[in-house]
Structures are given as structure tokens and as C-alpha cells.
Specification:
It contains 18 helices and no strands. By secondary structure, the chain is mainly α.
Length: 340
Amino acid sequence: MVDEEMDYWKRRAEQIPNDELRTQALASMQDKRFHCQGGSVYALLAGEKGKEAVRFIVAYQTISDYLDNLCDRSTSLDPKDFRMLHEAMKDALTPVNPMKNYYELRDDQADGGYLRELVQTCQETLKSVEALELIHGQLLRLQGLYADLQVHKHVQVKERIPRLTTWFEKNKDTYENLTWYEFSAASGSTLGIFCLVSYGLGGKVNPTAAQTVYDGYFPYMQGLHILLDYYIDQLEDDNEGDLNFCSYYENWNKMKERFLYFIEKTKTDVSGLPDRKFHEMIHQGLLGLYLGDKKIKSIPYGEEMRKSLLHAGGITAKMFNWNIRVYYKTEGKRGKMEDV
């Protein structure tokens, strides 16, 4: 189902008239396809509406990855432009919102209706969520944190840390056990949104369930997700001059200590969620997936970190890790044969 949805959006991206927008749309789908593949596991929570959940998740994650490229790799450093672009993610969660010109503050605008169609696809899916009002507040809170992060971290280099630390100061009373860079990382995940929407489509929400899911995912599950993502990208980000939150730990031992803390806090948080076993699988799957990446070998103390975190994750995390490493090895051999 994911492949079917992504193939459609790829064909749409290929039709974008503007060269720059087309380039960034196609690059985001090629380089970040696994975001949609991984995120769509939440469709299992939607029951008979699993296909609708996949449609939403792929469209919403495609918006996220596309906008990330426009902010990170494209032609603007204007925070007002970034804020306007991310109105698309807010509108995608609110079916009654009209479309806007999300490119209003940048030169490149002609996308052939690509971004609007992505937003409208999300809106159409959410119209079938009967109790949308029960999850809408939490959806917008998560989206607001995500948008704030994207704005603050993509401005001119000298402005990034002051903006991010000032943003955290406004929230640190609620999240006093986090550093500014850990709070930023937790804000950068879309997992909580996918979880809430899938539960909504499956008719599994009530007045307390939405907040329970929110608290179960933010900050620790989402923080672990993005910190692991940054961890494996350290060398790549350093070479390209990109902001990487893992670089702000004092040393690798402190980073390991905090990662272990996030693992334990996530275990506690998901234990109180409905479908506990499912969310435990997500937790263990994140550890297995990211720590199975081939880039771990190039990171100083990477093997020691991998062993420590997998030990904390338990036998299921180790099983996922073994499987993903075998998969990468098999794919590598297949690629070599295809090259020949």
C-alpha cells in the first residue's frame, strides 16, 4: 500500500513545472522513503480503515520531508517563509481550513498544485474520523512543536542556537528533565501524529485516550526516535555543516547515559498505552532499525553504543537489529549483482 501511494506522489512530483521545487520534491522521496515505510506501521491501529491510514501517513510524511528539503537544501533562509510553508502541515490536520499559497514568501512557486493536493488528501482522510475533535488539540500541539523546530533550526547559522534555546526556555518548566537539544529532538518526530490519526480512523478514541497517547509519545518516544536518527547521521551532518543535536553532549559517555535514560522513560510511558505490546514493538523496532544502520561502523565508539543500547532494549530490539543487518547485507549483495 505504501509503494502504491508513493508511486502516485512520485508521478505528481515529476510533473512540477518549477525546476527547484521538482528537484526537492523528488529528492525528498528518494532519500527519505523509509520514513513513509516505517511510519505506516501505525495503520495497523486503524483496523478496517488501514488503507485510509496509509494514505494519510504517506501524504503527511511526504509534506514533512518535502518541506524539510525546502528549508534545509533550497534557496531561502527566511524564517517567515519557513513558517508559511509549514502552514501546510497545520491545514492538513484541519479539514475545514482553506488552501493557502504556501510558497507566498519565496521566489519558486509553480508546483502544479502538488503541495495543495497533498494537504487536501490528508484533509479528505480526516473527514472520515468521526471523533476528530477528541484528538485535534493534541494533533495541533505536536504539529506546532514540529513547525517551531523547523523554523528555528533552518535560519542563518548564527541565529539557530539562540532561537532554539530561547524557545526551550519558554517550555523548560514543563520539561525540566530535558536539555534544549533533547526537547528540540522530541519535537521533530511525526510518530505521535500518525498514532493519533490511526486510532481516530479505527474509532478507538475517547476524551482521555488522546492525552494518554500524547503523553506516551512526547517527549521520550519521539525524542528517542529523532536522537537515534541524528546519531547515525553525525559524520554526514558534520561534513555538510548541518545542525546535529548529538554534537551538544559533553562526550559519548554522557550521550550514552542520556540515550539509556530515554529508553527507560519510553518503556515506562508506553506501558500505560492501549495496545501496549504494539507500542513496545515500535520502541524496540526503533532501536533495532537505527542501530542496524551501516553508518554505525564509522562513528567513534559506535559498536559500544550499539551493544549498550540494544542490551537496554531487550531481546526483541536485538532481534529487530539482527534482521535489519541481514537485510542490509542481502540488499548490498543484490546491488552488486545488479551493477554487474
